[in-house]
Amino acid sequence: MNSHRILDHPVLGKLTIEKEIPFTFDGKKYTGYEGDTIASALLAQGIRTLRVHEESGSPRGIYCNIGHCFECRVTVDGTPGIRACLTELNPDMIIESGKQQFSPFKSTENQDDLPRTYAEFEKQLKGEKEDEPDV
Amino acid sequence: MYDVLIIGAGPAGLSAAIAAREWNLNVLVIDEFLKPGGRLLGQLHQEPDGKWWNGIEESKILLEKAKELNTDIRCGISAHTIEKTDHGFSVYTNEGILEAENLLIATGAAESPAPIPGWTLPGVMSIGAAQVMTNVHRVRVGKKGIVVGVNVLSVAIAREMQLAGIDLECMALPAINSATESHGSPKKVMKALLRIAHLAPSTAIRFGSRFMKGDGTKALAVKFFPKSGVKMWGMPIHLRKAVTRINGTNQVESVTICDITADGEIIPGSERNIEVDFVCIAGGLYPLAELAAVIGCPFQYIEELGGHVPVHNEQMETPLEGLFVAGNITGIESAKVARAQGTLAGLSIAKRKGQNLAKLENQIQQAKMNVRTIRENATIQFHPGIEKGRSRMEEAYYDIVHG
Predict the structure, then answer these.
(1) Nearest-CA distance from B213 to chain A in Å?
(2) Out of the domains of life, which is the source (chain A) (predicted)?
């Protein structure tokens, strides 16, 4: 737990922990420290992926850490689109990673093979060969 | 209605707040981050006299002074847009609309990205992100990493990461592409490196910097730049190697690095992979000035100041009545310059309230001198032509206001 913390520093000295803050991320329980952002508390646990790209599903983590790139968006207590890098970690926060979304308008490669009518769809489903359209 | 609203609680914003409070102005400081201090918070470097510049301590000093003067500082507030009204400014934030007679925008700077393929993988971050994680949150960003992009800021932060016990394989350039441009050119990077040479406990670099004033010798220096890089604090800095790609499935697993010519062209067949679990990208800083743009403040592009900068005079006034700027939004310089500019801006704003003008004018002159002296004595200079850039800005202001 918090294994990625820098406990001792030659110039800044020992890390002083004022208060532990419990929270959950994707249903699992963790503990951060007072003064943490959501991003720092998660990174301290070795958690780097905060969301996946809404369409492609590719993993994303913090990039700029100053609230500009919006790569670290998470859902906090049901509110989506919260920037993990700017948001203070509060006790008992329920944090969820950003998930892949349904992409209804995504272009498909085999669009010529797709059914154009419900009748065609049913025929394809039954494995029947497509008839010549009725005249 | 506040006398002045200050956006940004960094060295410029806090110093301005202190100066304005000393003249008894009604001040509100807002900042997007959860604690005040701005980019001071991450800074940690050794000055030539051996003393440490500890940004966290410096920010505490400013904050205590501001608190003594009962300054209202609110964190976690983002300003989205601003409107100029008859009486001043309406600032739209996530906590509602804030009204002020005068406005000081002290938003600082942001980092330019130097994107290379694979840069969206978790474990890739801006060098500034790594700085805050390391020094403010005391979180290790990874086990072993590489810094892509060699400039004043990235060398300083690489050193900070080393201090915290984080293993860095090396620093190298980003491979040239349409987005990385000059960051991938060894000749241009060499110039930047020379500006911080005096900070390096490496005789090779210090020795070199004395003889590399001219462009011709710089080109030669790049040509004969050691294949193994030059070591700064034991970490190789490569100007003749570039990272072409960041590899990994769910996070960073390695980078592909190759040898490059003095012009930054990839030498075919020189590619190889280095295992790292994090990558810091450093594309340099630019003034963060959108909020000045949305109210219609005129801008001037000045390369020496870091890009597009709101037009302002030496007193930190813009041509828009009641709008002031201070800190890195006016040009990329050190936190010490930003702090001095903040004091000057605070006094200039107090002057608009028109009390005890003789005393105030005296303080303004002193504050102006202070900015100049600190600039001349700066340890870290982000651009060698900073003075030239500053006088170009004076001319731009004059042209707009009197021209």
Answers:
(1) 34
(2) Bacteria
Q: Which residues of A touch B78 (CB under 8 A)?
A: 67, 86
- Amino acid, single-letter form, for residue A57: G
Judged by CB atoms closer than 8 Å, whether chains meet at B111 and A36 is answered as no
The enclosing H or E element of B360 equals helix B357-376
| Together in a domain, B87 and B141 | no
Give B 233-262 residues with CB within 8 A of chain A. 250-251
Same-domain status, B38 and B137: no
**Same domain, residue pair B142 and B240:** yes
Of B247, B268, B283, the residue that ends a domain is B283
* Sequence-separated (6 or more) residues with CB below 8 Å from residue B35: A35, B41, B75
- pLDDT tens digits, residue range B77-102? 999 999 999 999 999 999 999 999 99
Q: Note down the domain range covering B320.
A: 2-110+286-402
B51 touches chain A (CB under 8 A): no
Cβ-based contacts of B141 with chain A (< 8 Å):
43
B126 vs A4, A35, A65: nearest CB: A65
Alpha-carbon distances, residue B228 vs A121, B171, B196, B208, B263 (angstroms): 64, 11, 20, 16, 18
**What value of ipTM does the predicted structure carry?**
0.90
Of A9, A10, A59, the CB nearest to B250: A59
- Are B15 and B60 in the same domain? yes
pLDDT tens per residue, range B225-280: 777 777 877 889 898 999 999 999 999 999 999 999 888 899 999 999 999 999 99
Residue-range domains of chain A with CATH: 20-96 (3.10.20.440)
